[in-house]
Amino acid sequence: MKTVFSPLHSRRAVKTELDGGILIAPHEKPSRAETILARVKAQALGEVLEPEEFGLDPVKRVHSEDYVAFLESCWADWIAADKPGEAIPAVWCGRGMRARVPKDIDGRLGYYSFAAETSISDGTWEAARASANVALTAQKLVAGGERAAFALCRPPGHHAHADLFGGYCFFNNAAIVAQAFRDQGAEQVAILDVDFHHGNGTQAIFYDRSDVLTISLHGDPDLVFPHFLGFEDETGEGEGEGFNLNLVYPPGTPYAIWSQGLETACERIAGFRPDALVVALGVDTFEDDPISFFKLRSEDYLSLGRRLGALGLPTVFTMEGGYDVEAIGVNAVNVMQGFDA
Ligand code: SP5
Ligand code: ZN
């Protein structure tokens, strides 16, 4: 399988993550992508390509014009306002308040976000753009006849809504890929999100559509991020009713249980008969992940890959979460090797 990777991911190198009332060193850090790339090469998974430039049009098929403009100017606006630290939202449109776009950068940071752990600094825009180009290059490979491709995206994407950043995500790479398949003539696309966290952005983007089936397996949002979406009674709305599926699991869930949800998801996908599959691949389901509570082991990622490969669909993998950097390369590449086997 070919891998798409951009060295520009390293421009996303914030120093802060708000956690537990203090600013810690971020979990979502450059070594994550470098460790996965090293494993791709060590295992000779396949060719590694740099992304092509697709411009902002395919990004704006999923994200609003004003949100994209906000991200582009956010850091410059923050600096112009003479702020001493990194850009962190600290005020939101709470219930009963007015959802209008403020002029001030503090107001706009709140308007365009849903969480405060995701700081913005110099280079975030460039890295997020490169990450979308990585995803779109993988999509082009698969649309051009490759059975599958690995988009080694960083920053990740699945938490980003049409006009909200958060959860370390800015552009929803999986959604951008699915929409690109549709725009190129695919009738139906499925997105399967196996990251530990609910793919809230992906769900929201396609919630009222029946052409893109969205499925996410994740930790119970009553207990973990993103807290305000991802429950099992969210099944889609309007045209999209019946085309969103959430499978929620409690702390301590091992592969033997989690894989039952994977089976349910795969059967639903097979019945949907999509023209292409996008896998939002997080490996923060790993037993030693520092911010998660599932108990998958490294060998389980081979099984996951084999099950996905058995669907027999043209498949794009977009890299999402996974924060045990020591194991992230083995775990992510195990999925690809299981798929290819
Ligand atoms: C892409 C992805 O996996 N995003 C995850 C975003 C999670 N953000 C909230 C993190 C809260 C971490 N709390 C850590 C407590 C550790 N004891
Ligand atoms: Zn995650």
From TrEMBL:
Its cofactor is Zn(2+). The keyword Zinc applies. Keywords: Hydrolase, Metal-binding, Zinc. Transmembrane segments: none annotated. It comes from the Bacteria. Residues 28-336 form the Histone deacetylase domain. InterPro entries: HDACs, His_deacetylse_dom, His_deacetylse_dom_sf, Ureohydrolase_dom_sf. CDD domains: HDAC_classII_APAH (cd10001). The keyword Zinc applies. Belongs to the histone deacetylase family. PANTHER family: HISTONE DEACETYLASE 8, HISTONE DEACETYLASE HDAC1-RELATED. This is Histone deacetylase family protein. It comes from Marinobacter albus. The lineage of its organism: Bacteria, Pseudomonadati, Pseudomonadota, Gammaproteobacteria, Pseudomonadales.
